[in-house]
């Protein structure tokens, strides 16, 4: 007797056969993400959890009291020294993010729209500063902007300042300049990728409809490149808040940031719980500021369009 094909397709699998879960798609997917998940848990999540746990303890010289307390957070929030350092750090990071994007956008725009077949070469050239150590680049700026640097020596020679203590740029300005130079390339790359994704036919259509270069840029190019701008701002702003090398070398007493205070608590001050509380507070504030910046840029991009 011949069984119709429709009947064969509709026939259920044998009841006695058990499917091996290790051969399923779920097991395969879990096996692919497991190494990455384990890596993230060990090197990202666990350290953060340890820092958070430390922030609720108290340290008395070499003895750590693990009794739950919020005293460290009270100090981190109410102490005027730490509060001012955090506000200064946020202000510096926002300034660095702004100047970095302003400098990086024209470079990314030129490479994307006028680089032609040499785009790869241009991208290669802007990475040349990273062939040297970050510390060496900071030290180079210290030679120029430092307490006894070239700029201040020149100003003293011209009679503008009387002594190095009147240093013209040995302060927050020196930190902003140095960090802007150090992070400029990191802002170019995401903006370039965003510009590359823009459909050029949209610009051609705007040209056919009579839009000039400025109007095309404001209505098409700039709004569509907003994701790259957001990425650049986040890439630059978040790490600069936690930078303590640059302020220490070129900032002087007026350029110290919150990361220097945190580093001191984990170093000579030997007060890890307070340092952990400062770290957690900084992370929370930076997260809120970053979310506000992203929302602002997205809203501005929609209104422009």
UniProtKB/TrEMBL annotation:
Matching PROSITE patterns: ABC_TM1
GO CC annotation: plasma membrane
Keywords in alphabetical order: Cell membrane, Membrane, Transmembrane, Transmembrane helix, Transport
Domain of life, source organism: Bacteria
Keyword Isomerase: no
Presence of the UniProt keyword tRNA-binding in the record: no
Residues of the ABC transmembrane type-1 domain: 86-295
Compartments reported by the entry: Cell membrane
GO biological process: transmembrane transport
Transmembrane annotation, as ranges: 37-57, 90-113, 119-136, 143-161, 173-195, 216-238, 276-297
Gene3D superfamilies membership: MetI-like
Family classification: Belongs to the binding-protein-dependent transport system permease family. CysTW subfamily.
Listed name of the protein: ABC transporter permease
């Amino acid at each position: 007797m011949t069984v119709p094909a429709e009947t064969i397709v509709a026939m259920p699998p044998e009841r006695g056969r058990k499917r091996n879960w290790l051969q399923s798609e779920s097991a395969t997917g879990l096996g692919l993400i497991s190494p990455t998940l384990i890596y993230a848990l060990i090197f990202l999540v666990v350290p953060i959890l340890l820092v958070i746990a430390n922030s609720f303890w108290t340290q008395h010289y070499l003895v750590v009291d693990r009794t739950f307390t919020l005293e460290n957070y009270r100090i981190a929030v109410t102490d005027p020294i730490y509060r001012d350092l955090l506000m200064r750090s946020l202000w510096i990071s926002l300034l660095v993010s702004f100047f970095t994007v302003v400098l990086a956008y024209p470079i990314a725009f030129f490479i994307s729209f006028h680089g032609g077949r040499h785009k790869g070469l241009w991208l290669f050239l802007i990475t040349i500063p990273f062939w040297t150590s970050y510390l060496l680049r900071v030290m180079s700026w210290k030679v120029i902007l430092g307490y006894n640097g070239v700029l201040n020596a020149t100003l003293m020679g011209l009679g503008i300042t009387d002594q190095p203590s009147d240093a013209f740029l040995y302060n927050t300005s020196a930190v902003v300049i140095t960090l802007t130079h150090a992070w400029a390339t990191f802002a170019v790359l995401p903006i370039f990728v965003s510009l590359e994704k823009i459909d050029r036919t949209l610009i051609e259509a705007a040209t056919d409809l009579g839009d000039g270069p400025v109007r095309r840029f404001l209505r098409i190019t700039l709004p569509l490149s907003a994701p790259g701008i957001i990425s650049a701002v986040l890439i630059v702003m978040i790490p600069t808040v936690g930078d303590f090398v640059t302020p220490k070398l070129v900032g002087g007493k007026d350029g110290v940031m919150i990361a220097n205070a945190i580093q001191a608590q984990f170093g000579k001050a030997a007060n890890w719980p307070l340092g952990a509380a400062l770290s957690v507070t900084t992370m929370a504030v930076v997260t809120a500021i970053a979310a506000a910046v992203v929302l602002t840029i997205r809203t501005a991009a929609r209104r422009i369009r």
